[in-house]
Design goal:
The complex is a heterodimer of chains A (488) and B (100). Chain A has 488 residues and is mainly α. Chain A contains 19 helices and 2 strands. Chain A has a domain of 207 residues. A two-stranded antiparallel sheet of chain A has the order 1-2. Chain B is mainly alpha-helical. Chain B has a single domain, classed as Helix Hairpins (Orthogonal Bundle), CATH 1.10.287. Chain B has 3 helices and no strands. In chain B, helix 1 packs antiparallel against helix 2 and helix 2 packs antiparallel against helix 3. The mean pLDDT of chain B is 93. The chains are: A mainly alpha (488), B mainly alpha (100).
Chain lengths: 488, 100
C-alpha cells in the first residue's frame, strides 16, 4: 500500500476545511496587531473561513453523483454524506455570519474561534463518512472537543464556563460508552470495519451490548431523552453563534452516523433496533416539548425545542426506509435554516451585561413588533416554521417524516408526533404573541444598530425557510433520486 | 496463560467503577478522573481482544484512545480553571447558574 494509491479526491472537501482551519490558526501567532486592527483582522479571518466553507461546498456539489469508498473502506462518500456536508457547511457559514459582529463583544481570539469552528466542521463531515469504528471515534472526538472549547469561549462569563464544564463532563462520559461499545464489537468480530462487523457478528451478548452502548453514546450526542440533561445548559450558556451551529451540526452528523451504523454494521433485522429508536424518539419529543412550555428565556426555550426537533428527526431513522432517510435529510435542511435563524434573532435580543446571566429573555421581546417590525416578523416566521405551519419548510419536513413513519408501519409514532406538534405550537406561538400583541415597555431590548452580517444571516435563513416550503415537492424529489441511488 | 474472560471481567468492573464514580462524585476533577478510568478500562478490553484475535486493530485503537484522553485532559483542566477563576470551587453542586 502506498499513499498515492489512496483516492484522496473523495476526501477533498474535508481536506479543504482542515487546511483552512490551519491557515486561520497560524495567523494567531504571526505578527502583532493593535486592538483596533484585531477587529479588522477578525473580519478578514471570517472571510477566509467563509471562502473555505464555500470551496468545500462547491467540491461537495461537484461530487454529488460520485459515490466512492476509500482508505481501505474506512470512509464512504455517498448521497448521505454529501447532503450532510451541505447541511453542516450551511450551518457553519450562517454561524460565521452571526459571529462576525458578536464575537468582538467579548474576545479578541478570532483565529482560535474560527479555527476551532472549522475543525468541528471537519469532524462532523468525517463522522458522516466513517464506515469504521476508529474513524468514527476519532471524528466524533474532533467535533466534540472543538465544541467543548467553543461553548466556553466567553470565559469571562460564568454561564459560558459552566456550560462548557457540563457539556465537557457529560460529553466525555458519553464518549466512554461509545468506545466501550466499539471495543465489545471489535471483540465480537475481530474487526473494526462496519461491513466485517455485519458479516461476522455472533448475535450474542457482545453484539447486543456493543450496539446498545454505541446507541447510548449517540443518544447523548443528538441530545435524545433520557440523555439530554446537558443540552439546555450548554445551549443557553454558549455564545449564541456556537449554539446555533452545534444545535444543527452535531445533531445532523450524529444522526447520519447512527443511520450508517444501523444500516451497514447491524446484521440483525432492522426492527430490533427500530423499537429502541422509536421509544427514544417518543421520549425525546414529549419531554422536550413539555419542558419548553414553561421557559422564560428564548434561548433556553429554543434549546428544549431543539431536543424535541431531534425527536422528530429520529422518526426518519425509526422508519429506516428510503422515504424515512429522504424525509430526515429534508428536515435537516429545513431545521438548519429555521433554527439558526431563530438563534440569530435571539442573539439580537440579548442584554449586553456580561456579569449577569446575559440572556434573550422573553421580556426583552415584549412588543418587539412596534419597535423592530422586520426583526419581529423574521422571528415569527422561524417560530411558525418550527411549529410546523404551512407553507413553511418546517411544515413539509414534518409532513414527510410522519408520512414516512406511517408508510413503514409506525402509525402510533406518527400520531404521538402530531400530538407533540400541537403541544409545541403553544410555546412557539407564545413568543409571537409576546412580540406582536403586548405593548413594549422599558425592558424591550434590541442591540442597535443591527449588524449587517446578522441581517444577511437572517435574510438567508428566512429565504431558506420560505423557499424550501414553497418548493418542497421538487426539492424532496431531488433528494429522493440521490438517496435511492444509495444501496438499501 | 490467563483466559481472556478474566481481562474482560476486570475491565468491566473498572468501567463500572468509573461510571458509578461519575454519577456519585461531586468534585469536577474527581468526575474527570473517573471518566479516565472508564477510557482506560476500554483500553484493557481492546488489548485483551487484540491478543485474542491476533490482529493489531485493537492495539492501534488503544493508542488512539490514549491520545484522545490526553487531549481531553488538556481541554478539561483548562475548563475547570476557567470555572475556578469565577467561583473558587470545583464542586459541581455549587456550579448551578443554569437550571431548568
Amino acid at each position: 500500500m502506498n499513499l498515492s494509491s489512496l483516492n484522496w479526491n473523495s476526501l477533498l472537501p474535508e481536506l479543504v476545511i482542515v487546511a483552512t482551519s490551519l491557515i486561520v490558526l497560524i495567523t494567531a501567532v504571526v505578527g502583532k496587531v493593535s486592538r483596533v486592527d484585531r477587529i479588522a483582522r477578525g473580519h478578514a479571518l471570517a472571510v477566509v473561513t467563509l471562502i473555505g466553507l464555500l470551496i468545500a461546498a462547491g467540491l461537495t456539489i461537484m461530487q454529488l453523483s460520485q459515490p466512492a469508498s476509500d482508505f481501505m473502506g474506512m470512509v464512504q462518500s455517498d448521497a448521505l454524506s454529501h447532503y450532510l456536508n451541505l447541511v453542516i457547511l450551511l450551518a457553519a457559514a450562517l454561524a460565521v455570519l452571526l459571529a462576525w459582529d458578536y464575537l468582538g463583544r467579548f474576545t479578541y481570539s478570532f483565529s482560535e474561534f474560527y479555527s476551532l469552528l472549522l475543525l468541528a466542521v471537519a469532524g462532523m463531515m468525517f463522522l458522516g463518512k466513517s464506515t469504521e469504528l476508529i474513524t468514527l471515534f476519532v471524528s466524533l472526538e474532533i467535533l466534540s472537543i472543538s465544541l467543548y472549547i467553543l461553548t466556553g469561549f466567553n470565559r469571562h462569563q460564568l454561564a459560558s464556563a459552566e456550560a462548557s464544564l457540563k457539556y465537557f463532563l457529560l460529553g466525555a462520559f458519553a464518549s466512554g460508552f461509545i468506545v466501550y461499545g466499539a471495543a465489545l464489537l471489535y471483540g465480537d468480530t475481530g474487526s473494526t470495519w462496519f461491513s466485517d462487523i455485519a458479516a461476522n457478528a455472533s448475535g450474542g451478548f457482545l453484539t447486543l451490548a456493543g450496539f446498545a452502548l454505541l446507541l447510548v453514546g449517540f443518544a447523548f450526542k443528538i441530545a435524545a431523552v433520557p440523555f439530554h440533561m446537558w443540552t439546555p445548559d450548554a445551549y443557553q450558556g454558549a455564545p449564541t453563534p456556537v449554539t446555533a451551529f452545534m444545535s444543527v451540526g452535531t445533531k445532523a452528523a450524529a444522526l447520519v452516523a447512527l443511520f450508517r451504523v444501523l444500516q451497514s454494521a447491524v446484521s440483525a433485522p432492522y426492527e430490533t433496533w427500530a423499537w429502541a429508536l422509536a421509544i427514544l424518539s417518543l421520549l425525546t419529543m414529549t419531554v422536550g416539548n413539555v419542558a419548553a412550555l414553561r421557559q422564560t428565556s428564548i434561548k433556553r426555550l429554543l434549546a428544549y425545542s431543539s431536543i424535541a426537533q431531534a425527536g422528530y428527526m429520529l422518526i426518519g431513522l425509526v422508519a429506516g426506509t428510503v422515504l424515512g432517510l429522504q424525509a430526515m435529510l429534508f428536515y435537516l435542511f429545513a431545521y438548519a435554516f429555521m433554527n439558526i435563524g431563530a438563534f440569530a434573532c435571539a442573539s439580537l435580543l440579548e442584554s449586553d451585561d456580561w456579569s449577569e446571566l446575559q440572556d434573550a429573555s422573553m421580556a426583552n421581546a415584549r412588543g418587539l413588533f412596534s419597535r423592530q417590525p422586520l426583526l419581529a416578523t423574521a422571528l415569527a416566521i422561524f417560530m411558525f416554521s418550527l411549529a410546523g405551519i404551512p407553507p413553511l419548510a418546517g411544515f413539509f419536513g414534518k409532513l414527510y417524516l410522519f408520512d414516512a413513519a406511517i408508510d413503514a408501519g409506525w402509525l402510533w409514532l406518527a400520531l404521538v408526533a402530531v400530538i407533540n406538534s400541537v403541544i409545541s405550537a403553544y410555546y412557539y406561538m407564545r413568543v409571537v404573541v409576546v412580540m406582536f400583541m403586548e405593548a413594549p415597555d422599558e425592558s424591550t431590548r434590541v442591540r442597535l444598530p443591527i449588524p449587517d452580517s446578522a441581517i444577511l444571516a437572517i435574510v438567508i435563513a428566512v429565504l431558506g425557510a420560505l423557499l424550501l416550503g414553497i418548493l418542497a415537492g421538487p426539492s424532496f424529489a431531488s433528494l429522493g433520486q440521490a438517496v435511492v441511488a444509495w444501496r438499501f | 496463560m490467563v483466559p481472556i474472560t478474566y481481562y474482560l471481567i476486570l475491565s468491566a468492573v473498572i468501567f463500572t467503577i468509573g461510571a458509578v464514580g461519575v454519577l456519585v462524585r461531586r468534585n469536577a476533577i474527581m468526575i474527570f478522573m473517573c471518566i479516565e478510568l472508564m477510557l482506560n478500562s476500554v483500553n484493557l478490553t481492546l488489548v485483551a481482544f487484540a491478543n485474542q484475535w491476533g490482529n493489531l486493530n485493537g492495539q492501534i485503537f488503544a493508542f488512539i484512545i490514549m491520545a484522545v484522553a490526553a487531549v481531553e485532559v488538556a481541554v478539561g483542566l483548562a475548563i475547570v480553571m476557567a470555572i475556578v477563576r469565577h467561583k473558587d470551587t470545583t464542586n459541581v453542586d455549587e456550579i448551578h447558574l443554569l437550571k431548568w
